[in-house]
Amino acid sequence: MLLAIQERCRWIPPAAVERLAASLGLTPVFIRGVASFYSFLSLEPKGKVIIRLCDDIIDRHAGLDAVLAAVTDELGISAGETTADGAVSLEVTPCIGLCDQAPAAMVNDIVLTSLTPETARHAARHLKAGKPLHDLVSPHFAGLTPQQRVHAQVASNIRAPGAVLLGEVPREAGLRRAATMEPRAIIAAIIASGLRGCGGAGFATGRKWEMAAREEASRRVVICNADEGEPGTFKDRVLLTERPHLLFEGMTIAARAIGAAEGILYLRGEYVYLRDHLEAVLAERRAAGLLGHAILGCGGFDFDIRLQLGAGAYVCGEEGALISSCEGLRGEPKTRPPFPVQRGYLGFPTVVNNVETLCHAARILDLGPDWYFAMGTAGSHGTKLFSVSGDCRAPGVYELPYGITVGELLALAGAEDAAAVQVGGPSGVMIGRDSFHRRLGFDDLATGGAIIVFNGSRNILEIVDYYLAFFVHESCGYCTPCRVGNVFLRQAIAKFRHGHASAEDVEELRTLSATIIETSRCGLGTTSPNPVLSTLSHFPLVYAAVTRPAQDGQQASFDIQSAIETARGIARRRSFVYDRDFSQ
Q1: Could you tell me which residue ranges the NADH-ubiquinone oxidoreductase 51kDa subunit iron-sulphur binding domain spans (predicted)?
Q2: What global pTM score does this model have?
């Protein structure tokens, strides 16, 4: 409801809050609390058009500063401001899932990719003149099908189609086989395949389905987590574009396995441009008898899917927070136990799997668990989609068997000069050249899919600082270790960046990181120190190079010259005490 109000009014007016609260029997404070949680909902007026420039580290390295400068110059406003006529608002936002074609931007419900200062200026001029928004994509936009509109905006950049998901995929082969099987046999097949969750945690998919099916309940739910908010990850975006039928087939198979009649596709707000395309596919499947009542003519096999749009909150990628969001609440993680498979959406047993996992499940039912189990390694079966971006010639999605080395993937992507690789996004691990022999998979380097490449010109501490700023911004604020600890961690990194750190500060980084990990409530807090810990481990010389003992045995905790610079400007004179070359 808030999304609908935001779309119509461009903000959530007080009168709308009051009316919504009265109609739902809720308090205005509750409504404002939900609205204030999500980045794409606003309690302040916004322009009719909102430009959200992606501020990911990859976009920065790809020329974001010049793009932002061109837009601000053309519109006459800075980020966070709205033009005087209320036409256009300009904002920066974290990763929008387009790292393979950065710099990128969301403009209401469309996206612009591979921006340059020239194309960005043209777009700003176009919007300032009040011309149709969709003309930025194509003058024939209205006549395109939903799928054509998606392809007109975003390239899929499939670099290596593999044997499971991105090669030749027959329609509904897995679902037709599942319709002839008992639910327990479907679960047994998924268990035998060795399929593990592809979002990063790697929990055994079949075991998750089995636990949900065993719960005594009158209602069960299947949720697809399409909220891939981890910076550097965009492989689910490609599956939603190229394999939507396979995804919905996988959801339907999961529903038959656990006895669910309802499904939810939770689509991240940054992927709003995919909404019409996915709704069209759902409508097509209903018309073909692949969703709804008695699917494929099987009595009692009833299942349908609704699309739930997110509103800009990284933490909603965590399954408890995602369920909270689906329930119309702030996207805050739920206390465990109980686990979602026991009491999830609205208190009913709920299976939450991501897009890639559900697509794999459909293919396993098609060709059998032995076929899938034979690919990959002893602890990581099947193939994996890798989202490769950054300093490489061929960014995009690579479907490869588990067990490929980092170096082999870098060679495929044209990243021979890579000096550092962020495996698994900010919550993963950053490795250097001495670790490029390591293998990608649960046996060694686990990853949800993000592979971010940095060459030798990049500043490691700048990257760490950016990722910590991201976690500070995206923390739901529920628990103190995450809400406050990450701020302290970023302040500590600033000491290193400014040359004020001592060797003792290295140990302080480790201690603070351990505290955050041990005492945070959800996965965000337990992984947010990883940029610090992994770079301390793999790039110790970076920290050693900027630490120095003071000659008097004491270490300055801040730069006094920078601290008094503002005072100098106000007083219009220099400091007798701190300016050593001061002369009367």
Answers
A1: 461-506
A2: 0.92
